[in-house]
Write a structure and sequence with these properties.
This protein is an alpha/beta fold. The protein contains 18 helices and 12 strands. It has 2 domains: 300 residues, Up-down Bundle (ABC transporter transmembrane region fold), CATH 1.20.1560; 209 residues, Rossmann fold (3-Layer(aba) Sandwich). The two termini are 45 Å apart. It is a multi-pass membrane protein.
């Protein structure tokens, strides 16, 4: 985020906002300056003129009071539109890259953008309004006596030097707080994903310790950040107070020397207060903004566009040769060589821990093998690397979205709507839909869980069917579906010309025989065991 981005979000509105803030500063300056004549007429005993000046001053004050909230409202609207644009750019980057964790995304899209809004964007209101008021106040002091502006200039230079003392500490403290927040979100993601298991084994105390540690670290980081900000504000405030008192004393000497009038002395003190209060506000705002430097650099990197994900080459077969996968703990597993040709229906079997799901991760390009070669084949036999292959994949844990069942099947592609009737029959979903008043237009409720595990799997199977990929990877895709429906779904799928590689447990001998052949994995891990299936 930058000032340029803020202004370009809506240029006509930005110009109008600047005009409102300009009018606010002009109105405030005139209101203060006119008070000079009211004070002078009061000392002369001219009541009528005093009341007249006070009424005029009141009118300008009302204008000033009304213009600032309007400008602030419009600028906050500008900020929110800019943040929305930045959030969209970051989301696009996340969409085009698979290198980020959910907790990192939450931290950037939530916490870090809020910090930028509060500590970078919003302070521009203080800077603009106070800088304009400060400039007009300086111009007015010059008309009173040249020595006043000379004194203010020297004091202002001193005040401007003070913020540099805390700039680095502020920036580091803000970055540290953002990092601790990311760590807490990561801990929440890791531990709450297994909340059911923790409850089952009454292990809530361990959850409390894990969250408590990171929560305390975040609290300490935020306390330190506010402490540094408080010290910085105190230093700036000290310089501001010295400047104001000094200006009032100097203008008082000029009054007793009969150089300026009592009204001049009064408004000199007011304008000196405007200048030093303005400087303090500007410095505080700039110090606050500088604290977001590292964060803004991080956000700027995230908003740099990545090349759009290109659709892969359609896969029809796959080959695996001399494949070995190594885990982070040093364990490794070796796979047998195999070739799956176009249209083959293959059952991948083996005991738990033999690496079936790991093999799927390799085929999906999510895991790089330690040795060997894996590649898909196109219709013409061309080799395709896993990360460039276009194929269907159905995981055991169905991923659904808070939208209609129809949209969860078509994945929001309206061109596929005409195929819905056919695919819901093929995956045995029709009886399940009949239980819902809105049937296929029922909205999936992820919080209340209005779909059972088997129904969720059927929806995802229908998704794979409707998108009609020639090669399908199925990882325990019917584990929550009853045996009769499973037999019908698999039987129908195996009657197509698709290439199918499926992981499954507890299939009946009759269902296994429907596959062309099996690839049976046996445990050959080195250096211990793994929980992989």
């Amino acid at each position: 985020m930058s000032l340029k981005e803020l202004l370009k979000t809506n240029i006509p509105r930005a110009i109008f906002i600047l005009f409102i803030f300009f009018a606010y500063a002009v109105g405030g300056t005139i209101s203060t300056y006119l008070f000079k004549y009211a004070i002078n007429d009061l000392t002369k005993g001219n009541w009528e003129r005093f009341v007249l000046w006070m009424l005029i001053d009141f009118a300008f004050s009302i204008f000033t009071v009304l213009s600032l909230p309007l400008g602030t409202f419009l600028f906050n609207k500008q900020i929110q539109e800019c943040v929305h644009s930045i959030r969209a750019q970051i989301m696009q980057r996340y969409y085009n890259s698979g290198d980020y964790k959910v907790s990192e995304m939450q931290n950037e899209l939530g916490n870090n953008l809020k910090i930028l809004t509060d500590d970078y964007a919003t302070p521009w209101i203080e800077i603009w309004t106070n800088l304009l008021s400060l400039v007009f106040a300086i111009g007015t002091l010059i008309t009173l006596h040249w020595s006043l502006i000379l004194f203010v200039a020297v004091a202002a230079i001193i005040v401007l030097m003070l913020p540099k003392i805390m700039t680095k500490k502020l920036s580091n403290s803000t970055a540290a707080a953002a990092k601790k927040n990311a760590q807490l979100l990561n801990t929440i993601e890791n531990w709450f994903s297994g909340l059911g298991e923790l409850r089952r084994y009454s292990a809530g105390a361990r959850l409390d310790r894990a969250l408590g540690q990171d929560s305390r670290k975040l609290a300490a980081a935020n306390i330190y950040r506010r402490k540094v900000q408080g010290i910085s504000i105190s230093i700036n405030g000290l310089g501001n107070a010295i400047g104001q008192i000094g200006a009032s004393l100097w203008s008082g000497l000029l009054f007793f020397a009969h150089v300026i009038t009592l009204g001049d002395w009064f408004i000199a003190g007011s304008f000196a207060s405007t200048i030093f209060n303005g400087l303090w506000s500007v410095i505080s705002a700039m110090t606050q903004m500088r604290s977001t430097k590292k964060l803004r650099q991080e956000i700027a990197q995230l908003t740099e566009p990545l090349p759009e994900r290109k659709k892969g080459t359609v896969a029809y077969g796959v080959e695996c040769h001399n494949l070995t996968v190594q885990y982070q703990n040093g364990e490794s597993i070796t796979y047998p060589d195999f070739t799956i040709n176009k249209g083959d229906k293959v059952l991948l079997s083996g005991d738990s821990g033999t690496g079936k799901s790991t093999l799927f991760k390799v085929l999906l390009g999510q895991l790089k093998p330690e040795t060997g070669e894996v590649y898909f084949t196109a219709k013409d036999g061309t080799k395709i690397l896993p990360q460039n292959a276009q194929l269907g994949y159905v995981a055991q844990d169905a991923t659904l979205f808070p939208d209609t069942i129809a949209n969860n099947i078509t994945m929001f592609n309206r061109k596929l709507t005409s195929k819905l009737k056919e695919v819901i029959q093929r995956v045995q979903l029709v009886p399940d839909l009949a239980k819902f008043p809105k049937q296929i237009d029922t909205v999936v409720d992820l919080d209340q869980g209005n779909l059972s595990g088997g129904q969720r799997q059927k929806v995802v199977l229908a998704r794979a069917e409707v998108h009609d990929e020639p090669f399908l990877l199925l990882d325990e895709a019917t584990s929550a579906i009853d045996s009769n429906a499973t037999s019908a779904i698999i039987g129908d799928l195996l009657d197509t010309d698709k290439t199918v590689l499926m992981i499954a447990h507890n299939f009946s001998p009759e269902l296994k025989e429907k596959f062309d052949y099996q690839i049976h994995l046996q445990s050959n891990k080195k250096k211990g065991n793994s929980d992989d299936n």
